[in-house]
Design a protein that fits this description.
Largest sheet: 8 strands, mixed
Radius of gyration: 22 Å
Number of strands: 22
Number of domains: 3
CATH superfamily of the largest domain: Acid Proteases
Oligomer: single chain
CATH topology of the largest domain: Cathepsin D, subunit A, domain 1
Strand content: 25-35%
Structural class: alpha+beta
CATH architecture of the largest domain: Beta Barrel
Helix content: 25-40%
Number of helices: 15
Distance between the termini: 43 Å
């Protein structure tokens, strides 16, 4: 049951329903065009004006809920999703936004109640909210997911190795040290399927996951009692399960048992410090955010670039970037893209006049299985004010996230672009910081 704090008040709902209907939504077309172009701030202004003029505008209410969720303004996302549900009771899209906002607040059981049915759960998976698994969410009733235990304000995990991706030592359920790779393109903590069996993880169904080249593979759902990262332990942690040990050879280690994804990083002010070879986790308190800003601004060795960040679906972080001379667009920041600095949608490759080096095609391995990768070179690529020249690119098939979230994404920024920097993810201020 959703707590009273999250409910749209009966008085407000009554006033809302009493508003007169308009036959036409003034300005909805321009607002939609701005949203599709990733101009969320400008689109929000128009949607807000529409909602003021016509309190019965379901499209405006839903888009305002969606923009609030993208911006991680969770109270606003909950409020606007309730307004949309008043106008269109039982609406699947509004239920998904409400559930994801509750999920990000750590109210898992309430999120499961908001999803409610198998039909909504299936729709959530298709809309990149695969974490909204009702059975798993409801299993957290009476518990605090990601409950943090440990001393101090900061912990550090040294990379076991940095190539082709950073590898970390992690303990699950207090067991042996296991090797996990670090990947912002991953959602919740991911366990190798056999490793999960060894731990006795109960499977709560599976969902199709979408991976490189548009490939799909079933990802199991479950939960573990604890995950230890450096000096800290998170208790009551949701997990996904996928065969990962087959990738151990590609990582150059005897055995890879899992992946640390954005669901874990979201719990902290997290810095993937490639030059220092470590993952730095800080508590997400105002004091720690202030201390981090003061320290990073004073750093004499690295220039600091701050850019806005939005989170689509349950973990896809996007920010502004540019390929060569074509117009700026949004890019998905995926540290798990190994062996390349960028991966572009076919439309961006064509617009930039980039030539695929088909003679250098080779077999690759992604989360969905084997694929063919074709390299290319980008003369310049930027995220915010950070520009790199002659960035390596990779093509492995259709880019499935180009228009998956209702706005255009030109591609993704990968490990080879990020590894010259320290990448900090601020989920409170919704900032991405490269230094």
């Amino acid at each position: 049951m959703i707590g009273a704090k999250t409910l749209f008040s009966a008085f407000a709902a009554a006033a809302f329903m009493a508003a007169p209907a308009l036959t036409q939504q003034p300005g909805i077309g321009p607002a939609d065009s701005l949203y599709q172009a990733g101009q969320f701030v400008e689109a929000e202004k128009i949607y807000s004006e529409i909602a003021k003029t016509d309190a019965r505008s379901y499209p405006a209410s839903l888009k305002l809920a969606n923009i609030a969720l993208l911006s991680n303004q969770l109270d606003r996302a909950i409020d606007w999703s309730h307004r949309a549900l008043v106008l269109k009771p039982g609406d699947t899209n509004a239920k998904i936004i409400l559930a994801e906002a509750l999920y990000r607040e750590g109210k898992f059981a309430d999120a499961g109640g908001a999803v409610g049915s198998a039909d909504v759960e299936a729709a959530a998976v298709k809309q990149s909210y695969a974490s909204l698994n009702v059975a798993k969410l409801k299993s957290f009733a009476g518990q605090i997911p990601y409950e943090l235990h440990g001393p101090g304000q900061i912990t550090r995990l040294k990379f076991v190795k940095a190539e082709p991706l950073p590898l970390l030592k992690v303990r699950v359920n207090g067991g042996r040290e296991a090797i996990f790779f670090l990947d912002t393109g991953g959602s919740e903590l991911l366990l190798d399927t056999q490793f999960a069996r060894e731990l006795g993880v109960k499977t709560m169904g599976s969902v199709p996951g979408l991976f490189s080249g548009g490939q799909t593979a079933l990802v199991g759902n479950g939960r573990v009692d604890s995950v230890t990262l450096g000096d800290w332990t998170l208790k009551n942690v949701p997990v996904g399960m996928l065969p990962l040990r087959s990738m151990s050879g590609a990582f150059g280690v005897p055995q890879v048992d899992g992946c640390v994804g954005t669901g874990i990083l979201y719990q902290f002010l997290a810095t993937i410090d490639y030059p220092a070879g470590e993952l730095v986790l800080r508590r997400k308190t105002p004091a720690d955010l202030k201390a981090f800003d003061a320290q990073s601004q004073a750093s004499p060795r690295r220039k600091r670039a701050v850019m806005p960040m939005w989170m689509a679906g349950d973990h896809f972080m996007v920010t502004w970037g540019q390929v060569q001379a074509i117009p700026s667009s949004l890019f998905f920041v995926d540290s798990g893209l190994a062996g390349a600095g960028v991966k572009l949608a076919e439309s961006a490759i064509k617009a930039a006049g980039i030539t695929l080096e088909r003679g250098k095609a080779e077999a690759g391995l992604g989360g969905g299985g084997h694929l063919i990768t074709i390299p290319y070179s980008v003369t310049s690529f930027s995220l915010g004010e950070v520009t790199e020249k002659n960035v390596s690119g990779i093509y492995d098939g259709p880019f499935p996230w180009e228009n998956a979230w209702g706005f255009h994404v030109d591609g993704m920024a990968g490990n080879d672009f990020l590894k010259a920097h320290a990448l900090t993810l601020d989920f409170v201020g919704m900032r991405l910081i490269l230094q």
